[in-house]
């Protein structure tokens, strides 16, 4: 069911409850108050951003008097101003993101445009679900792939840029970080593009804070004894984490991440831009075609060799026939019968990629 249909059924039910007509031009102040009170508790359940602009204008905006004014203003901005960031926390879209599907138990699809905006350092004009250029592919989930450090490195090393998200135990808080480099090695790595973040309430993106690296030579620690470690945030055993100064000062400006905490679960995603994703798709297709061409070429060469073998045998037979015809001619009344077989030819298996 489309979101606009859900909205229309909700209105129809509210009007029936209050015994009111659905024409807002005929409402008085008391009517507006009554329907507003009836509707208020259901507003957070409607995915208004999934409603198409035409439907919004003709089927939602006409009821602006019974909707929160900040919601109406935010929706107008969303439909009119490109790349605007939502100021109201609404449920994530019911629409599947077919282009870049999300596999996560910790975050929702509305987190992804925010991560993409942080990666590209878009301070004012943030991405939205429609123009998010990044594909976040799940590489590792501690509760699924194993809580040991080796499992993290097995799944995440040599994967390029990654973003990790961890849920702090017995809370709604999510923390995480973006590493634009690889996790392999045994050394501190330098970058100017890494950041850490904190959601006081993981389900509400408006509670987020982001902190970009200040001391670039201590941005990311890659070590076989640690999970994702950035600045003063250390993942010791995938469960026990810490965020304490170890004599290097403030590597990332403080954003309210606890000093010591346990993690309930954490996930690591490979972050690829649209151009990079398209490049890998094209590269894989070229490889597939080349492998297929190689098989065809090998078959063609094999077939050519077989054909040459047939021709050679034919030539030998023809020469034999000529010689025997000469012999036959020299022996009147003699008879000649030649039977020959090329043998069985069988192509056992050809695998085309």
TrEMBL record:
Top-level taxon of origin: Eukaryota
Keywords from the named record: Coiled coil
Segments forming a coiled coil: 303-330
Pfam families referenced in this protein's UniProt entry, alphabetically: TLD
InterPro entries: TLDc_dom
Boundaries of every TLDc domain copy: 105-272
Protein name per the record: TLDc domain-containing protein
Species assigned in the record: Rhizophagus irregularis
């Amino acid at each position: 069911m489309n979101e606009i249909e859900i909205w229309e059924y909700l209105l129809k039910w509210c009007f029936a409850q209050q015994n009111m007509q659905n024409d807002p031009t005929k409402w008085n102040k008391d009517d507006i108050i009554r329907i507003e009170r009836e509707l208020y508790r259901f507003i957070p359940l409607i995915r208004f951003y999934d409603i198409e602009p035409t439907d919004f204008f003709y089927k939602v905006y006409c009821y602006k008097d019974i909707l929160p004014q900040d919601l109406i203003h935010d929706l107008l901005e969303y439909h009119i101003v490109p790349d605007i960031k939502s100021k109201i926390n609404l449920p994530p879209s019911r629409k599947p993101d077919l282009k870049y599907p999300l596999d996560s138990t910790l975050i929702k699809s509305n987190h992804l445009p925010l991560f993409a905006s942080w990666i590209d350092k878009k301070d004012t004009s943030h991405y939205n679900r429609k123009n998010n250029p990044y594909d976040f592919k799940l590489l590792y989930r501690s509760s699924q792939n194993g809580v040991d450090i080796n499992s993290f490195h097995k799944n995440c090393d040599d994967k390029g840029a990654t973003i990790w998200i961890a849920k702090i135990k017995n809370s709604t808080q999510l923390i995480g970080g973006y590493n634009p480099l690889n996790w392999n090695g045994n050394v501190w790595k330098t970058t100017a593009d890494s950041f850490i973040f904190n959601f006081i309430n993981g389900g509400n993106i408006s509670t987020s804070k982001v902190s970009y690296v200040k001391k670039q030579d201590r941005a990311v620690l890659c070590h076989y004894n640690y999970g994702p470690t950035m600045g003063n945030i250390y993942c010791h055993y995938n469960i026990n984490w810490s965020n304490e100064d170890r004599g290097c000062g403030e590597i990332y400006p403080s954003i309210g991440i606890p000093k010591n905490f346990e993690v309930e679960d954490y996930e690591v995603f490979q972050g690829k831009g649209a151009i990079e994703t398209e490049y890998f798709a094209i590269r894989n297709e070229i490889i597939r075609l080349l492998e297929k061409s190689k098989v065809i070429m090998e078959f063609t060469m094999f077939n050519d060799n077989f054909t040459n073998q047939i021709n050679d045998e034919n030539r030998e037979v023809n020469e034999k026939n000529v010689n025997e015809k000469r012999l036959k001619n020299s022996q009147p009344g003699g008879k000649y019968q030649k039977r020959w077989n090329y043998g069985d030819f069988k192509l056992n298996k050809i695998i085309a990629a």
